[in-house]
Design a protein that fits this description.
It is a single chain. The protein has 243 residues and is mainly alpha-helical. The protein is built from twelve helices and no strands.
């Protein structure tokens, strides 16, 4: 990572600014499978949308095993066909639950409690359909493993804040953050970074007057070019006539 010290300073400033953020409390946070499902819903979107979608799921199924046997389009109907991520999110969630069931003969993560934290992360990362953000979030919040969940919107936010360069990809960003943030601070850092994403300053839109001025300037330039072209052609015809 270029300018490592400068990047670290900007990261610490961002974390300090959003420290102690009051995000909506995640539902059923004591259940690892609930954390898994909610993390899939939170991936790439907001806490507000994820909570609404999660409530729709809980009110539509008896348990998460029933969610496992739902088709991807059925899950999409439950959370809303316009939910960010579309059918891919639902396909991935279904694939992960099905793979988990084939390994454990249940939709449960109880077997991970006897594993070391590194093995927990490896297990989660190996599940079919899962994405690094979800694996990291479950490892962090349900098994107290050292992990920092990173999705595209956090990656973009860090670029905007000058914490990382545009050339740094998401995987490298995740690895760098986990080196910068201590395990004991990872949970608080995750919530701070989530708040930094959800409460990012809105970009100012160019005023209507500016748009009109730009359009007018473009129109004037085109008109000037057209007039010059006409004058040139007229001059050429007169010269040709005299010869």
């Amino acid at each position: 990572m270029k300018n490592g010290e400068k990047n670290a300073t900007r990261l610490n400033a961002l974390l300090k600014k959003h420290k102690g953020a009051e995000l909506p409390e995640a539902p059923d946070s004591d259940d690892p499978i609930a954390v898994l499902v909610y993390s899939f819903l939170l991936w790439g979107t907001s806490s507000e949308k994820a909570q609404i979608a999660y409530r729709h799921i809980r009110s539509s199924i008896v348990d998460f095993n029933e969610l496992r046997v739902c088709m991807a389009d059925e899950i999409q109907d439950i959370i809303g066909v316009r939910y960010p991520g579309g059918i891919e999110r639902c396909q991935r969630l279904r694939a992960t639950l099905r793979d988990l069931y084939s390994r454990e003969h249940a939709v449960a993560l109880d077997a991970l409690t006897s594993l070391g934290k590194r093995d927990v992360r490896k297990y989660l990362d190996s599940l079919e359909g899962i994405v690094p953000y979800v694996a990291a979030r479950v490892a962090l919040l349900s098994f107290d493993a050292h992990a920092i969940p990173v999705d595209d919107q956090l990656h973009q936010r860090l670029i905007e804040e000058g914490v990382i360069d545009e050339s740094v990809d998401l995987a490298e960003t995740l690895s760098w953050l986990e080196r910068q943030i201590k395990a004991a601070d990872a949970r608080e850092a995750h919530f701070a970074l989530q708040d930094a994403v959800e409460n990012a300053p809105k970009r100012k839109k160019r005023s209507q007057g500016t748009k009109k001025s730009t359009a007018s300037a473009g129109k004037t330039a085109k008109e000037s070019t057209r007039k010059k072209s006409v004058t040139k052609r007229t001059t050429e015809r007169k010269t040709a006539g005299k010869s």
